[in-house]
Structures are given as C-alpha cells and as structure tokens.
Specification:
alpha+beta, 22 helices, single chain, elongated
Length: 598
C-alpha cells in the first residue's frame, strides 16, 4: 500500500518551516476528517492556523499528488498553492532582518495575541506615552486625537488585536470624510481633509511600528496614493509655498518696530503690546525660524556669555525627539536682532529666560502649552493688524510663516542648503550639529548668512537716493553751505551727551603692554567721572586716529571718518532708547552692550 502524503508545499522562511497539513490534534473519536491548516514550525514547536475545510488523509494525499489539470482534485491543489503563497509572502515581510517567533506569526496572521495588552491600538497608545515622556506633548496630543477619531468612527466594529487591513483603514478614512451614524443615528466624526491626512499619517506611523516589532507584515501594507492599487489614499496637506514674507517685507516690519511707527489711535497700552508682539515675530524669523515654544524656553545660558553675547545655543523643542543629535542649534545675534533683544528681552542673567513674560515662571507642561498657545494667538492677531493698518497689506501671517520665510529667503539669497538645514535643527549623518557649525560655519559666517534676512543696507541706500534727488534741485551756493555744515557736524559727532552720560569715540589706552604702538578704537561712556569702554573696531596708532578724526571731504581717510560718524549715530540712538525717562548708569549700559566687567 502506497504511503499517504502528509504535507503540501513545504517551505522555509529564515528559522520557520511551513506547509499545508491536516490538523490531527483532535479529541474527537470515530472521526476520519481533519481541518485543513497551515502549520508553522520553529524549534520543533508548531502552531496550526485553519484555512477552511476538512478532509480525509486519503483525499489530502490525492490532492497533493494530483496531475490531471481537469480533475477536481487538481483544482483544489491550485487553490491550496495560492493560499500557501499568500502566507509565504506574509512571512517574508514579517520582522525583516530578524528571526521569527510563533507568537509573531500567530499575531500577524490571526490578529490575535496571547497577551491581551499587545494590539494595534495598544501600540498606538504606547507611542503616545513615549511622546509624552520625550516632552513632545503637541505631537502626543495629535496622536491622541487621531486615536479618538479611530475609535469613534469604528465604534460598531472595533479593531481587536492586530486584525486590521486596508478595508478597515479605508472605512475610517471614509468616516472622517463623510461622517458616520452613532448609536442614536446622529452623524459624527466628519473632519476637514487636512486633519484627515494628519490622522491617517499617524496611523501609518503606528502600522510601521507594528511592522518593526514583528506584529504586522509589510506585505499587506495598506497605504498608497496610486488609485489603481485600491489602497488607502492619504490626502496631501495644503502647500505652504506662498506662506512667507520676503526680505523686503520683513525689513519693512523691522522698520515699523525700530521707528515705532504705530497709529496714534491705538492707545498707549495696545501699542506697547503690539510692539512687543511684533518684536517676538521678528525674533522668530531672525532666530533661525524657531517657534514660540522655543522662544519661551530660551535662556541666557553659559554659551551666550562665552560668546560675549554674540550667539544663543539651544535645543529646538519640536525636533529634539526626532533629531539624531538633539536638534542643537546656534543662533547668531546679528545687529537687528540685538536691537530687538535690547528693546523687549529681559536683562541678561545666567540661566534666566530671555522672554520671561511668555510663561511667567510656569513649568508644568499643561500650563506651558496653554500660555504658549495664547502668546502665539496674540502675536498673530497683532502682527496681522500691523500689516493691515500700518503697511496696508492684504496678508495674514502667523508665527509658522517665520520658519518658512527664514528658509525661503536664505535659499533665494544663494545660501547653501546644508547651512539652512542645520540652522533649523535638522541633523546630518555622521556629525553632530555643533561640530558642523564649528567646523563649517564659524560665527562670522553665520552672521554673514543671517544678515541676508533683512535688507537694512538697501533701504538706507534708497533713503540716500531720495535725499540726493532733493539736493540736485538746490543752487550751488546752498549745496556748499550744506557741505560745510555737514563737515562741522561730522567732526562734532564723535562726542555726544544723553542725560547724565557723555560718550565719545576714542582710543582705549588702558593696557599692560610695554610701549604699545596701537590701541583699540572704543566708545567711552562716562558718568560721574567713572568710565567704561566698548571696543568697536581695529587698533590704531595715535597718529592714525588723529588723521581719520580730522579728515575732510576728498582726503584719503574721509570715508573711514564718515563711517565713524555713522557709528556714533547708532550709539546715540541706542542710548537714547535705553531706560527712557530715567538717569543712566554704567551697569545698565554694560548690560545693554554686553560689556564684561573690567
């Protein structure tokens, strides 16, 4: 008598052997038929998954050995072959790169796990918990809202274990688009397409995590935007390419801030709040496009003082959990940014907040998120009003525009993409962000790049051109008189007085060097016969200093002399805006200019 075949299409995937067999593990007596199953074996242990139908051992053997294509048994053989190919594909996509376990196979194919806490929804909840532990509360909240929508729309067919596929996800997607009826017949769950896309992308992350953990197989991947595949389509988010302000527009906003050009009808209190909000908006732009959450956490840390107030170092909150190197960012404090900080930021103190009023000392995450959200709303509303009533723009920018504006404007200025990416907190392989900045982008280069964010020089030139156009209409005699007066003002401009403080451009001769020939050019501030010096240029000999100081139009040193006059104009404006209405102190001036104690 011929031996009966006991297995069909035996195969192997890594450490697992599989085949179609009859499951003869039965307690029933007097039975001659057994369930048709796929048997998976690892380390001499097996699980059986029924695939439908029961057969006698003889019939199973006949199907296994069938040759004639027109016979019913051959047809059964081909159907069994399709089934085993399906499971072969599932195994090949399960926990790739690692050995398989029977638990993974059972969970992936049946959707059930021996551990009731391990499920698709359970993995989703684990991701939310991890995000909260990492401090990524906004992202965690988005994942929570997506899971809430998932449960609400699938209320009558909840997902158990890992029994989820493209049909289930499509049902959820359709429910988000059109709504579904709840137990009372009320339509619920309908949301905007943009939010639907965010929630589906969340589910995709959860799916990929289940694949990584070996609970689902990528062979059954449910997402694709190719209609022909009939899978779940994730709607694309609306483009943000037009949501930015160009350099000229940002520069105009800066001039509004610098010159306090607000409508008189606003009133003092609202004007002060609008001025502060505009400053924060510009800070977000000039601080490498960071957001209000970053601004709220920004402190005067050790790096700030080590750089002599020339740069901030911080970890960007939004990308800290995703960036390989902690999203460490260096922000060069270019002159316009310094001006804004002097106006609205707190006085620099070690480890103190730069903008303390945003959080008012709050530390618990719920309060921090609420206060940050409120400040975001205030900044948006006030900047929109400034754009409307001060500049007559039909634009409604928000804080998110600052980040896009930073990247777009530097890209359009020809700045290399590596700098833009790194300065926004995006990590690069094989290097830490800090190393990249130190090696490839020294602070001077960062200052150069970020100075392209505003067009201060260009606007100055425009104003000069307007003046020249006016002067061109004057008689020669009047022009000569104007030039004589200008020369006299330039000579006098190297010394000013504001309230109780006298300041002048001079050489700092306080040195321990023996017989020095050159001294650093400095602005000397004197109050009550006590002085401090702020170095502002290269070193000069006494003779060079006097040549430049006394230079007249047409002399070789006249351009440098004119630059000195403009430099003192800047300091005059800076000191004039310091603690208005009060006497000055040398400590206040030190803080304003980041001058270290002698």
């Amino acid at each position: 008598m011929a031996t009966l075949a006991t297995s069909f299409m035996t195969g192997r995937e890594r450490n697992c052997t599989y085949s179609i067999v009859l499951d003869k593990r039965s307690n029933r007596t007097r039975t001659n038929e057994f369930p048709l199953s796929v048997r998976f074996t690892i380390d001499k242990k097996s699980i059986y998954l029924p695939i439908g139908g029961s057969y006698t051992p003889q019939y199973f053997s006949d199907v296994t050995n069938a040759k004639k294509s027109r016979s019913a048994k051959y047809t059964d053989q081909q159907q069994w072959a399709v089934i085993i190919e399906k499971y072969k594909t599932i195994l090949s996509g399960l926990n790739r790169g690692h050995d398989l376990t029977l638990e993974q196979i059972k969970t992936s194919i049946s959707g059930k796990s021996d551990n009731d806490e391990i499920s698709f929804v359970g993995i989703w909840e684990q991701i939310i918990e991890r995000l909260n532990k990492e401090g990524r509360f906004t992202t965690a909240e988005s994942y929570t809202c997506a899971l809430r929508s998932f449960s609400k729309i699938l209320w009558n067919t909840p997902v158990i274990g890992f029994k989820i596929n493209s049909e289930t996800l499509q049902k959820w997607s359709d429910g988000m688009r059109n709504g579904v009826e709840d137990k009372k017949g009320k339509t619920i769950g309908k949301i905007a397409d943009a939010t639907r896309g965010i929630y589906l992308r969340t589910a995709r992350v959860v799916w990929n995590e289940c694949v990584r953990l070996g609970y689902l197989s990528n062979a059954e991947y449910p997402f694709s935007n190719r209609k022909a595949l009939g899978l779940v389509n994730i709607p694309k988010g609306a483009t943000r390419k037009d949501r930015f302000l160009n350099v000229e527009q940002m520069t105009e906003l800066y001039y509004i801030f610098r010159d306090h050009k607000y409508p008189d009808a606003w009133g003092k209190v609202y004007t002060e709040k609008a001025h502060q909000s505009l400053g924060l908006f510009l800070v977000q732009y000039l601080c490498n496009g960071f957001n209000l959450a970053d601004a709220a956490q920004l402190t005067y840390n050790n790096f700030y003082f080590q750089s002599q107030g020339k740069a901030f170092l911080f970890n960007r909150k939004k990308t800290a959990g995703r960036s390989e190197n902690g999203a460490e960012v260096i922000i060069p404090i270019i002159e316009p940014l310094r001006y804004i900080l002097h106006d609205i930021a707190a006085t620099p103190e070690m480890d103190k907040a730069v903008f303390p009023w945003i959080l008012n000392g709050a530390t618990d995450e719920k309060t921090v998120r609420r206060l940050t959200s409120q400040e975001n709303s205030n900044v948006k509303d006030r900047v929109i009003r400034i754009c409307d009533e001060c500049l007559h723009w039909d634009i409604r920018p928000s804080g998110t525009w600052c980040r896009h504006s930073f990247a777009t404007n530097l890209r359009n200025a020809g700045v290399e993409m590596n700098y833009i990416s790194e300065s926004m907190g995006h990590s690069m392989p094989d290097h830490s962000v800090t190393e990249l900045y130190i090696e490839h982008y020294p602070l001077a280069k960062q200052m150069e790049y970020n100075s392209l964010l505003l067009d201060i020089k260009s606007n100055t030139e425009q104003r000069k051109q307007k003046i020249l156009n006016c002067l061109s209409t004057l008689p020669l005699e009047e022009l000569e008189e104007i030039m004589r007066e200008r020369q006299a003002r330039l000579k006098a401009a190297l010394s000013f007085r504001d309230r109780n403080c006298t300041f002048s451009l001079t050489l700092d001769k306080r040195t321990n060097r023996k017989n020095p020939e050159n001294y650093p050019l400095s602005v000397r501030f004197t109050i009550d016969r006590k002085s401090i010096y702020h170095h502002v240029g290269r070193e000069y000999s006494q003779a060079e200093y006097e040549q430049i100081r006394d230079a007249k139009e047409g002399d070789a040193h006249y351009e440098e002399r004119r630059h000195w006059g403009e430099l003192m104009d800047q300091y005059e404006n800076l000191i004039r805006e310091t603690v208005k209405g009060h006497a000055l102190t040398l400590d206040v001036i030190k803080s304003r200019l980041n001058i270290k104690a002698d």
